[in-house]
Amino acid sequence: MRVLVFFDLPVLTREDRHNYSRFRKMLMKNGFIMLQESVYCRMALNQNVASAFTNLVKINKPPKGLVQILTVTEKQFAKMEYVTGEYKSDVISDDRRIVIL
Questions:
Q1: Which parts of 13-71 fold into alpha helices (H)?
Q2: Per-residue pLDDT tens for 30-69?
Q3: Which end of the chain, C or N, has fewer beta carbons within 10 A?
Q4: Rounded to whole angstroms, what are the CA distances from 4 to 8, 22, 39, 89, 96?
């Protein structure tokens, strides 16, 4: 499953910028990767894990702005069409992931 977080937060005042930065850093700290500006994605093993991430976002939501969460299956996520541009992933999927202890 994938948990997608979409947000549109105000950045007019210093406090708004601080809340935006804090929310964005919380997403990254918890394993969300940026798909595009203000759209972050996190893989979840099952519905229980996805619910936990959803609750985490709800607890850390900023006081102002719009935050939306969408949970989709891996099959639905794979059907995403790229009209322009291409998919970039921060995930290393080759031999560089191997750790020898």
A1: 14-29, 47-59
A2: 999 999 899 999 999 999 999 999 999 999 999 999 999 9
A3: C
A4: 14, 18, 7, 15, 27
